[in-house]
Amino acid sequence: MPKKRKITGPRDNDTKPAAIVLCLFVAAIIVFVIFSRHKEPKKEMAPAPNEAAEVSTPVESVNPEAFVSRPAVPEPPPEGVSGPGGGKIAIIIDDWGQTTTNCKYLKEIPEPLAVSILPGLRHTKDVANCAGRYHKLAMLHLPLEALHNGDYYPPNYIIKTTMNADLVSKIVEEDLDQLPSIEGVNNHMGSKATADRSLMRIILRILRKRGLFFVDSMTSPHSVSATLAEEMGLRYGKRDVFLDNINTREANIKQYVVLAKRARHKGYAVAITHDRPISMSVLKEEIPWLEKQGCQIVSIKELLHYR
Fold it and tell me: Which of 45, 72, 98, 192 is deepest in the core (most CB within 10 A)?
């Protein structure tokens, strides 16, 4: 009989199922790894309005659409702690007399303000009465010659460097007589006139005689008013910041930051704005902000130099 062959390992057809299972398992692992690496990350949901999303909130009473983000002015030291405060600020509002529309703000703003009124206009005396009614200081906004001026003014309305002393005195006296309740004067324009020593001496002499103070609007870097005022023993002050040279809400608000910094640095500052709708609206809104910075709104008389 033929000798039986000894079987030493599994038969080929027995290994096929195991190999297939093993291949499928490896393939599944490879597919899983590849899919997990290329799967698009889940997008984060936007927070609901009441969740902890940071929201920029405008200063109270400022129109949110017009809010301007302002650099922080350092907070004043706590009460009783030594250190620089926010400083004193006096605000003069120029160019009154053309209308009484903005007189409502003199009632609505409780802080001391100065109202500077142009002479010879339809509402010159009406505005003076309004200022007195709401306890605001009244001033004469004296028209003086500018180096460049394209606006129309009646003859002898603006005091010019070419006028003789008698005519200058006559115009100043007549302008002052229109406003018997005023306590001081500042210049309307005047970039040429305030640099003229002879002319300013005539004007300041009349103011001293009447017991009035003078605030230089500083329309010229060459003004001689401060030097003359000291020589003549006249109470005087100088403008530090124009708030509304650019007649937009955004530009106005930025200037209040400049004003707060100037007051903190010097200890005081004199600001000038104008009888315009935007300017008056922003003034009402920004005074509380100035006070929150530690600034104190005072009458211009508190900041005058006495000589």
Answer: 192
